[in-house]
Amino acid sequence: MDLCGGQPLRLSSPKFKTLYLVRHAQGIHNVVLEEKGKINGIGDANLSPRLLDAPLSPKGIQQVSEHRKQILESGLLNTIELVITSPLRRAMETAVGIFRGHKDINLSDNFPPIVALELCRERMGLYPCDRRESISTCRTWFPEIDFTMVESDEDALWREEKRENLEEVSARGLRFLKWLWERPEKEIAVVNHGIFLQQTLCALHEKVSIPLQDNLLTRFANCELRSIRIDKSDMEAVTRTTYNCRENVAPTSSSLHKLE
User: Fold this and answer.
1) Residue 219 banded pLDDT, cuts 50, 70, 90
2) Count of CB atoms within 10 A of residue 218's CB?
3) Which of the residue ranges 3-17, 175-189, 206-220, 242-256 would you say has the lowest mean pLDDT?
């Protein structure tokens, strides 16, 4: 597992925060993309129900198992204080599989809590793979995940006729980083999606002028982990940067949110 950018410096100062960014493992929609080229080129409406809130493929499940072993060997499971996941099924399967999984020998039951958050989901609209299931259904699938920060049971953000543009995704990404900064935890894992992760990091680099290594700005592979460290000056720069962002993806006030 490649921790791109080098091993992050671990500091206890509140001026720093380390983020471990993970793209979900391979989903069944990724398989379709590889076979057909692009979702809107499939031409078979019967595939839409199959791609709704796409779960992991068999290869994706294997990727999760392999990366969990690497996380255990690295000691990160004992370091990470909080896991934030997109509420899309492929991300939640990845988050639970890597950061919970099956009970391991000599491993403490003191797992980091896993919290679902709409703000960090994949680019929204048009494609059924990016439309989530109801939260009531997700709770039955993932009892390990805290869904209290997701306000709507049904997916109120996905639009069938229009896809979120990349500027909106970048704006959401920076708002998400500000939300993370306000949390008390210092070492946080984030499990979400390729477009969201890349747009967020590119916005930090290009819009906010925070220097990042080139290997942090490329598209994440499935189940790839990269780490970054953000500090107070970074977040002050983000705050000074103005974006137009969809208001309906703002999270509940969360700096004082008590995890269940």
Assistant:
1) confident
2) 13
3) 242-256
Span 237-257, mean pLDDT?
A: 46
Tokens of 68: 């969990």
Confidence of residue 235 (pLDDT cuts 50, 70, 90): low
Annotated active-site residue 122? The verdict is: yes
Q: Which amino acid is present at 216?
A: L
Give the confidence band of 106 by pLDDT, cuts at 50, 70, 90: very low
The residue annotated as part of the active site, out of 122, 168, 187, 224, is 122
Is 24 part of the annotated catalytic residue set? yes
With beta carbons less than 8 A apart as the criterion, state whether 4 and 213 touch. Answer: yes
